[in-house]
Amino acid sequence: MDLSAARQEGFVSKERPENDSTRSKKRLLAVIGIITTFGRKKNRDAILKAWMGSGAALRKLEEKGIVVRFVIGRSANRRDSLDREIDNEHRQTDDFIVLNQVEAPEESSNKIKFFFVHAVESWDAEFYVKVNDDVYVNIDTLGATLSAHSDKPRVYMGCMKSGQVFSEPTHKWYEPDWWKFGDAKSYFRHASGEIYALSRALAQFISINRSILRIYAHDDVSTGSWFIGLDVKHVDERKFCCSPSSTGSICTAI
């Protein structure tokens, strides 16, 4: 389905794929994807202990309407030791989404795009949330905040920011397509990448139009760019602003 057709249908297809995860079940509040990579098991263990839970605790959270999974791709050298370590960890915990995408820094924006594609095709939820694996999430506060916006059809929620576009190839945050952002070299307003949430219609829009959505060097910029020109409600929720001491917030940088 192309962009114009998706717009006419409110950004969603008339027929959603049905599988064991979506059939005959009450709609979830949220699917949370924790973006992780190879060599970050300590981070994952810390998250499991701090707020995600495992086993029965994770299933209980799902009964309350929130699914949480770690999200990772595959090694460029398929079935090598990196892949095997993740496969072994997944067999023990059953809490991964393993995407059929190469796990590499330069593929981060594609990884986020295909997380949303996978999530919306696997679970029917009000919201789909991306969070980094170095962030502590207060699930109760997150759930309450999302619920307050569940009556809005197209919500893009996060700690909204803008900032400089870096054109120097040696810079950490170099943007190869810097020239597209104009002479002022400033990004459009978008949600900071630590954590942000999309309502169901927007996640479905990404899934429908995955093949034509342009990506940039940074996943948060890429996600924000997909909604420019669309009838989307940008929610600048300051509780999504992470810092080492973000008291009262949904998330805390750790």
From the structure above, extract its key features.
about 25% strand, Spore Coat Polysaccharide Biosynthesis Protein SpsA, Chain A, alpha/beta, seven-stranded mixed sheet
What features would you describe in this structure?
It is an enzyme of class 2 (transferase). With 254 residues, this protein is an alpha/beta fold. 31% of the residues lie in helices and 26% in strands. It has one domain (3-150, 194-211, 237-253): Spore Coat Polysaccharide Biosynthesis Protein SpsA, Chain A (Alpha-Beta Complex), CATH 3.90.550. Strands 3-2-1-4-7-6-8 form a seven-stranded mixed beta sheet, sandwiched between helices. Helix 4 (81-93) links the parallel strand 2 (66-74) and strand 3. The relative contact order is 0.17.
